Amino acid sequence: RCNIPQAVNCISRVAERANTPVIYLSTDAAESETDLLQSLTMLNGRTIPLVKRPSRNLAEKWDALLYRHGLEGDSQVEAMLDKTISAMSTVFIGASGSTFTEDILRLRKDWRTGSVCDEYLCQGEQPNFIADTE
Predict the structure, then answer these.
(1) Mapping DSSP to helix (H, G, I), strand (E, B) and coil, where does residue 92 land?
(2) In whole angstroms, what separates CA 134 from the centre of its chain?
């Protein structure tokens, strides 16, 4: 598992190679971590926006079908939405060892939506920090 600055470098490299203006973020990381990730993710001096699936908002209708069928807040449905969005993206960066990532990579292969820029976060890199020992 890489640290946030290392993840930022990886994401920025892939964003530059793929020439992508925005990144969809699907994670169970704490908001403090994703806020730090967002504050550091830049390319050529400009912030690369990290967007997440929005929470329920009565003014928006994107999730009306889920709500109508009582599926809002269902963690399995939300996970499948994230998998589908990720599988249909231009480029995908996943976490090594994650079954969530492997499901998305399988979908990308089956749907032929994969990219030569797809990779695992911090692929082939050792964590560049030393854990405190007590």
Answers:
(1) coil
(2) 33
- Burial state string for 33-70 with b = 16 or more CB within 10 A and e = fewer than 16: ebebbbebbeeeeeebebeeeeeeeeeeeebeebeeee
Bridge partners of residue 23, in order along the sequence = 50
pLDDT tens-digit readout, 68-107 = 787 877 789 889 989 999 999 999 999 999 999 999 999 9
- How many CB atoms neighbour CB 90 within 10 A? 13
Domains annotated on the chain, with CATH: 4-120 (3.40.50.11350)
57: confidence class by pLDDT, cuts 50, 70, 90:
low
Q: Extract the tokens encoding 27.
A: 């994670």
